[in-house]
Amino acid sequence: MAALKSGLGLQAALTALVALLLLAMPGLPSPPLYVSLAGFAMAGLLLASGNISAYLKIFVSVYGLGYLLLALSKTLAAMGALPGVVAALLPPDFAATGAVVFAGIVLAISYWRPIRDITLIADPYFANRDAPTREIGLFRWFGRTEGQIGRNLVGLSIFVNFADVALTLGFNFFYRDMYNSLQALDAAAFWYQIVWIFVPLAALNIVIGMFDLYVDSALQVRWRTWLTHSLYERWLGQGTHYRIPFTDEEADNPDQRIQSDVNAFIQQTAGLSIRLLSQAAQLVSFIVILWTLSHDFVLPFTDTVVPGFLVWLVIAYAVVGTWLTHIIGKPLIGLDFRQEQVEADFRFALARNRIYSEQIALLRGERAESARLTGLFHAIIDNYVGIIYRRIKLIAFTFSYRQASTIFPLVIAAPSFFAKKITLGTLQQTSNAFSNVQNSLSFFITAYTTLAAYKANTIRLGAFKRAMTKAEALAGAGYGLAQGHDRSGDVTGRDLTLALPDGREIVRAPSLTLSKGGATLLTGPSGSGKSTLFRAIAGIWPFGKGRVDVPEGQSAMVLPQRPYIPLGTLRGAVVYPDTTDRYSDAAIRDALIAAQLPALADRLDEIDTWDRRLSGGEQQRLAIARAILAKPDWLFLDESTAALDEASEASIYGTLREKLPGTTIVSIGHRSTLHRHHDRRIEMVPTGEGRFEPRAGAPLAAPAE
To answer: Residue ranges of the ABC transporter domain (predicted)?
Structure first.
């Protein structure tokens, strides 16, 4: 961000210097005085933009460069230092002043709340200082950091779009001169316009169109890669994904927000922002032309002169059209937001049916699931029908609006042409300029459907980021639950109170100690807070107060009753959460055999849906294999052998004692047969009002070998 500010300051100084030089040399052929004075305004705008959004800074900076290039190019053309063909392709003098106007507009809208909501999502990419993304070769050489590459690509895209506007202006003057040559029957002038004006313009138009697509695609790919990585790493970091449901922020279906909404947001932000400013450049350019053509316009069939009548007419026409479009199309914003939500709910329900297909089949729950899916799908159709009817109304108006706008300028200017006050070329130029101004002013009319979807995406991504921020705050401060380190090597709790998300207290422990070494069994009735206590020790439970201290520098692993089995190879499932290169094949096979899964030892590279392929007991034994590989200092087993028979359970505990002699084991369980595998017991004792307190129980027999 500091580099952006210093760059704007340097650019402001250079702009002011150029403007001063143009004023200081009156004998030098140069653009009109207003162009020189506009340079000082541009310098001020550059300095005032130091604290605005990183994304919008790019636009202001590019406008500043655009002013310098246009002012210097027109000066060189006036001095005869440029070839005639190149000079003929330059935009009018007022284009340099237009760049100042656009910079002022960007600075003004940067404080508008909807724009700030957008830039809060967009800015982190353009302000980051990460190394360029290695997996993408497009424009990797275009900056030293990923953020710098993004800024340079946006700037390049803006320049390309301005070049396209300049070409549009060139075509406007070409059509005027060509039609005038036809009216005058001047063959030489006609062929000159075709060969020396049209052909270069057409060739440049093709090249610019191809390059524009390449630049925009590279920007979107790089931006999406960085933002997607950033969001899912933040979502998965420090248990944020686990805590989001405990916040008061609406953040359903994070998978859709990271995959679909990010992609749509980037495409729409890049496309709409650059297109909008391109339309603004076209608007200013053609308004000047239209004003020049109608500066002394006489109303048809009267002698009344209305200066710039066509300008006022097209502005009034576009304002009324935009207002009516907003009235008709406003409900689309809510409908599009709702459509994203119901589509995601339906997709999530289908995914759950795939995951729990065995349970559904065993319970013969197909009819219930079909009825539930029917209800979810009907919600999609009902909402989409509402979108269809609203879009039909919007299209009916916008099509009528565009059809009427094509005939307006001809109807208004035709009387002057028939009275021989203007030429055929001027009539054509007037119609073309009116059409371009009308199109620019009607940007919101033609893009309303896209803007409605864009706002819905922005709302969803903004809510997702706010939810992550609140979840991170829960992790950082919680409700007074502090995390620290115990130098004695034990896990301890002091003045510990754990609550449910609704605020109801479930566990109170004035003092709690889980001693290092041996094995401790945590028992108690269901719902007494045993698993919640494990979550608090692991540091992921945000609701509570007091303090939990864990041994510093020691590793811990928690195995829940239902282990998570990732997609992919069996090797990846066994070594999780480590990567597959962490352990040798021999070590993985030995762990599987020790966990009583010898049949899987030679299937490490098979890809399957292992969470469906393996039984509940096999999944629990696979989790035990993970612990044998990881060799943690502390192993917390939350009913991690509940799906095994007693003999297999006893064998597993014996294996853990053998393979992990230095590991402290803490188990949650209900079976009395677990007692002989532990040497200490802590019991959750009810204390009234739904609260339980962990208290040390009678010593257990020495663990069975």
So the answer is: 491-704
